[in-house]
Design brief:
Layout (H helix, E strand, L loop, with lengths): L3 H9 L4 H10 L1 H22 L7 H23 L2
Helix pairs in contact: 1-3, 2-3, 3-4
Length: 81
Amino acid sequence: MIPPPLNHAMKQFPEHKNILETHYRKNESFRSLCKDFRDCAMAVEYWCKSARDNKHSHELCQEYKVLLAELKDEITKWLVK
């Protein structure tokens, strides 16, 4: 069974499944990065959907989108190591 954080990364980078799995298995920092990436994606989904319900939702949605892009860039750097 593939851990949910790794599965999420594999969905975002399907052409790199093998290297993602190798890094995930061997490196705690990479596992943490994948977990943060998945958690942030879930936060984007939550805050962007609730934008009408809370005056701060739109702002939080945008902040999490920026963070998600940064985490995606970090994962991309691992793929070219």
